[in-house]
Task: inverse folding
């Protein structure tokens, strides 16, 4: 889809807003409001061997202003500059949980809401965790919880865990575990 013009109308700490004039594949032209985002990474951290029967993972319960409440999430955050997604995953795991990982494996990247943003989140799982110190940002209000993998899946099914990136990551890990079992 050819971009005919782009006008920046807002630049913030997390996102920028552009108004793009584009030519669609059918020849029509139109304006689209696009939130520009540097991308992010999220990681499912395993405290136990990920291949054992019902391993423990770490989940975060974080206050999110946009939802006016608390969400259960995997550790995640936005990329800094040209930081590779794997490095973002390592950094966010350390900052939010205080843990480092001996092993981090990719799952998939996905578009969060392609109707109005270019945000792409890269999903990972991690194992071989070592404890360290957290480094929460000023606006991060969160709790760290150890949860059995089966409990996390149940939280999805009963609606307790409804953060999209975490749901996708956990279901992908569940599929991986099923395939290697």
Result:
């Amino acid at each position: 889809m050819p971009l005919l013009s782009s006008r920046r109308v807002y630049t913030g700490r997390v996102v920028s807003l552009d108004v793009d004039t584009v030519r669609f594949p059918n020849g029509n032209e139109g304006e689209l409001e696009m939130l520009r985002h540097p991308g992010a990474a999220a990681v499912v951290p395993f405290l136990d061997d990920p291949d054992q029967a019902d391993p423990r993972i770490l989940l975060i319960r974080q206050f999110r202003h946009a939802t006016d409440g608390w969400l259960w999430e995997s550790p995640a955050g936005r990329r800094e500059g040209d930081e590779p997604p794997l490095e973002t995953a390592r950094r966010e795991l350390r900052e939010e949980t205080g843990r480092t990982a001996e092993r981090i494996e990719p799952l998939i990247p996905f578009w969060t809401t392609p109707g109005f943003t270019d945000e792409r989140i890269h999903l990972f799982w991690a194992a071989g965790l070592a404890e360290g110190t957290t480094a929460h940002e000023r606006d991060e209000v969160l709790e760290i919880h150890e949860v059995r993998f089966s409990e996390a899946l149940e939280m999805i099914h009963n609606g307790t865990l409804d953060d999209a990136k975490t749901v996708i990551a956990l279901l992908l890990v569940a599929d991986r575990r099923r395939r290697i079992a």
User: Anything to note?
Assistant: The radius of gyration is 18 Å.
